[in-house]
Structures are given as structure tokens and as C-alpha cells.
Amino acid sequence: MATAESDVQAFTARAFSTPGKFEEFCGNGGQALRGIIGGRRVQGSMNATFQTVDPGSQEVLATVCEMGEAEVALAVESAQKAFDGTNGGGWRDCPLEDRISLVKKLVELCDRDRDVLLACEIRDGGKVSELAEGDFTQIRECAEYFIGVASRVQMGDSEAMGVASGVKGFTFREPWGVVAGIIPWNYPIVLTSWFIFPALLAGNTVLIKPAEDTPLSALYIASLAEEAGFPPGVINVLPGRGEITGQCIAEHPGVRYISFTGSPGVGQSILRTCDRHGTRMKREMGGNGSAIVLGDADPEVVARRVGRYVNQHYGQTCCTIHRVYVDQKIADSFVDAQRAFMEALKIGYQTDEGTQLGSVINPTQQQRILQAQNETVSRGGQAILEGGLAEVVGKEGFYLKPALYRTTPEVDCNPLEVFHTFATVCPVESAEQALALANRSPYGLGASVWTRDLERGIDLAKQFRDGTCQINCHNSMAYGLPYGGQGISGGPGGGVNCEDTFLDYTQVKAVYVADYPG
Ligand code: NAD
Q1: Are strands 257-261 and 178-182 parallel, antiparallel or unpaired?
Q2: pTM greater than the 0.85 cutoff
Q3: pLDDT at 405 over 80
Q4: Is residue 496 one of the residues assigned to a domain?
Q5: CB atoms inside a 10 Å sphere around CB 354
Q6: Same domain membership, residue 242 and residue 168
Q7: Are the beta carbons of 232 and 39 closer than 8 angstroms?
Q8: Residues 430, 503 within the same domain
Q9: What is the mean pLDDT of the chain?
Q10: Of ligand 1's atoms, which has the minimum distance to the CA of residue 269?
């Protein structure tokens, strides 16, 4: 049944109770959760631990060991051994059917423990259930898509071609070897899946570096992988701070390829480190998403739709709409409707029924968002909803109110990714003016056009300097279509979740064979 437009809602929580198995996993018999290296649980030579908390209540969920330089070196060695095997028989030579059946088994175990993985997202990540449940479906969808790709892509030798008299040439496609995935905190299940499935199916062994705010999903998935029967060393998990664990991974020349998802500044710095020793890297980074609303759109209907993507995971989504450019003819009604939608968001604890705007991930983010709200006004934005701190009775989380501003084309008050339920609305004279303003950002991840005229929408959308350009929808993603960024939001490469992504986890050599001289 089609949803009436007036029913289009923000992502919303249903009541969620934490399963005992999640608590058992976090408690770990009174010991800190350890890194997973070569099939062993490793405490770490730095003897350092950190706590991961539920952001909505500040309850400590688990204590986790931090992995340092020695553990990164051990993980690279273990992963390389698992890749090569002893006298062959390593992951690189494992028949594709066997890799596929291990991946399928892992997916089944994730399905079995769905509630535990949902608890990782909801409790550790602070997400509402509607979004976490959607994230969970990505495990199976991603695995199945890349099983299909792996079954079609020809690894090994291509057909030979004649190069010159007595000389032939062909290409040889193989996995890189040890590859690392550096993951941000906002979508841990999704981004762990997007990394491990193509990487493993292509024949690589992996190091997963989860974010320090949300390390639980990757640790749990890796323990399920062990149960599924993945050989030791094929999947390793290195929890820790970015500037310690992450930096050591970037500096290790034994890591042949890094898939980084996170902020542009960190991505740029890792790229420079990798370049020093030839590690290849792909980067999926932040955005400052825009939406253009044309004059033929119904301002109230579109404000609800746009509002859903301003508030997706409380704005802590890479493709969040932060900038709206709306035809001046409908601007007043649009702003009113946008304010009504944002004002009505139910602020609360993320496991309580009906919550739509929960806590941000940590106190540093909370401060950064407050600062951005102040700066938007000092740069000339006119506050419609002022933002500021919010309180949730009985909870000590990092809560904030939504912020909405009206601005003008001359005022550039929203230049950075704010990562909260935060948007500026700028009335414009024409779609062309809107496009020029949308494209003045150095980010280029996701943008949308809202109009009844689909052809005009398509024509405009293609002119965005963004990796995903959408008409009457925002942040849609489908396997087979690349999800990636332009400008400072991504690259090199075309994005994730398409055939090219699988090829990114392989390297190609040209082989020339000449007849023996004489
Ligand atoms: P971040 O850049 O701070 O951290 C990302 C990861 O990098 C973490 O695991 C962190 O520990 C690690 N890291 C930090 N410093 C490092 C260093 N010097 N060397 C190596 N590793 C280091 O990002 P975040 O705050 O965790 O995540 C939010 C950002 O991620 C936002 O910008 C968001 O838009 C972006 N993001 C992008 C996508 C996408 O698909 N394009 C998806 C999700 C999130």
C-alpha cells in the first residue's frame, strides 16, 4: 500500500530490549574484549584499553583492548601466512566455491544472531531500530551481490594476444594479499560488510580496524566468522584509536591495499602515508549533501521527504542533506513545512518507542555541532530553529535539538559537514543558480533534485559534482550502481558496491612471453 505523503516520517525507533547474548559478549567473563589476530584473542603489548559506551545513556558497554604497532605487525604476518598457506593451500588458492560457502555460512550465523548485531548498532552506535534493521539487511544483500560478481569475474590469465612476431602477451589478475579496511563509527555493520565481502571473495586476507566509538559489530562478526570456519588469519580485527592503531596500519608496507571510509582530513593524511611505501588506497569520505527543490514541487510533501534525509541517523550519515536550495516562489511554504517537520521530531533515547532524534555519538561531536550552529549564525544564517542542547529525562546522553536556517545566495554559511539534524534553506531565482550554489562545495557525495518534471530533474541531476545524483529521492543505494564521492568526498576509483569495487581488490599484471632467442 502506498504511504500517504503526510505519513512520511523520520526514521523511528520501536522499543528494543537488549538480548542477554549481547551482554554476555560485552562482559566477556569480566575481561576486556581483545583483538582477533591469527585466530587468537590478543590483549596487546601496550596494555591499553578503552571503553565503548552507549551514547544515549553513557552506560559503559564494554572495555576493549587497544592494538598497537606490535599487534599490527603480528596481524600483517598472520594475514600474509593465511594468504600464502604453507606450501600452498592458503586463502589465495582456496577454490572460489569454498570461499563462497564460508561467506554463506557467515551470513547464516549473522541471521541467527540478528538481535545481537542489532544491539551492537542500536546500543553501541546509538541508532534507532528502523535504521539498524535496514543496515542489518545489507549483510546478506552485499554478500549475495559480491558472490555473483566473484563468480563472473575472470581471475588469473586472460586470453593471450599477439604482440609482435614470436611474442604474445596476456594479463594476470590476482588478489592483492593483505588488505585493510578502516571503518568509521556511523554504519559499522554496513561498512564492515561492504569491505569484507568483496575483499575476501577476491581472495585477500583482511585486517578490520573498527572505529573506537563502535568496535563491537566488527568484533562480533569476526567471532561468527571463526564459528563459520574461516581459517585463522583470514579475518583479523584491530580495535584502537585512529592515530595509534590506524596510523600503524597505514605505515605498514605489508598492507597492500587500504579501503578507508571516514572524514576527508583523515583520508588525505592516510593517502600521504600510503604513498610513501606504495600501498594502494581507496577512500569513501564525508559530504555536505544538497537538495534542489524546483518551483513545480509541492513544498509540504517535499519538505517531509527532505526532512527524512536531513535527520537520517540524526544527520550522522555521509549523504545527509545539509543544504537545500528552493525556488523562491515556494520558499516560505517550504521553510514553514521544514520547520514543522523538524520541530516535531521526537527527541529521546534510541531504544524507546517512537524516538526519532537520539544522542550524537560522543561529547566531542556534540561540541563541534554546537560550534557549527553558532558559526552558521555568525556567518549570516538566520536561525529558524536554533538548535542547542536537548535534555532527555533520566538519560545522560549527548542530545541536541535540530537546527534550521534561512540563508541567501550571497551568504556561504554552511561550508562544512556538520553531521547532525542541521540544514540551511536558501531561496533561489532559478534551478541554474541553485546548481551553481550546490556545486560550489568542495564535497561531492550525494545530491538530489525534487520536481514533477522528471526529464528536467535528470538533466539537472547529471550536472551535480557528486557521485550519486538522485531525482525525488535521496541516499538511495543499490548493488550494481557505484556509491562513491567526487571532490574531497572520495576517490580514486568509482565507489563501492559495483563490479569495479571487486576489481579494486585485485591487481593486474601484464605478462609478455617471447620465443626463446636463437
Ligand atoms: P574519521 O575519519 O575520524 O575516522 C574513520 C576511521 O579512521 C576510524 O576507524 C578512525 O579510528 C580511523 N583514523 C582516524 N585517524 C587515523 C589516522 N591518523 N590513521 C589511520 N586511521 C585513522 O571518521 P569518523 O568520525 O569515524 O566517521 C565520520 C566520517 O565518515 C564522516 O565524514 C562521514 O561522512 C564519513 N563517512 C563516509 C561514508 C561514505 O560512504 N562516503 C560512509 C560513512 C561515513
Answers
A1: parallel
A2: yes
A3: yes
A4: yes
A5: 11
A6: yes
A7: yes
A8: no
A9: 97
A10: 18
* Per-residue pLDDT tens over the stretch 383-401: 999 999 999 999 999 999 9
First to last CA, the chain: 77
Please write the tens of the pLDDT for every residue from 416-451.
999 999 999 999 999 999 999 999 999 999 999 999
CATH number of the domain within which 246 lies: 3.40.605.10
pLDDT tier for residue 493 given thresholds of 50, 70 and 90: confident
Residues of the domain holding 347? 288-442+446-471
With a 6 Å cutoff on the Cβ, whether 242 touches ligand 1 is: yes
Q: Is the pLDDT reported for residue 2 higher than 60?
A: no
If asked whether residues 277 and 395 sit together in one domain, one would say no
187 CA: nearest ligand 1 atom: 43
Q: Which of 137, 99, 101, 143 minimizes the C-alpha distance to 117?
A: 137
Ligand 1 geometric centre to CA of 262 (Å): 2
- The total of structural domains in the chain comes to 2
| Residues facing 50 on adjacent strands | 64
Which run of H or E residues covers position 448?
A: strand 446-450
Whether residues 124 and 202 fall in one domain: yes
- Residue 413 annotated as catalytic: no
Secondary structure of residue 63 in the 3-state scheme: strand
Question: CA–CA distance from 398 to each of 93, 359, 368, 401, 483 (Å)?
Answer: 49, 5, 12, 10, 30
Q: Are the C-beta atoms of 441 and 288 separated by less than 8 Å?
A: yes
Q: What percent of the chain has pLDDT over 70?
A: 99
Q: Are residues 87 and 161 in the same domain?
A: yes
Asked whether 124 lines ligand 1 (CB < 6 A), one says no
Based on the fold, state whether residues 463 and 501 are members of the same structural domain: no
Closest Cα partner for 43 from 9, 62, 61, 67? Answer: 67
Statement to judge: residues 220 and 158 lie in one domain = yes
**133, 237: one domain:** yes
Structure-block grid coordinates of residue 152: 563472473
| Cα Rg of the chain (Å, integer) | 24
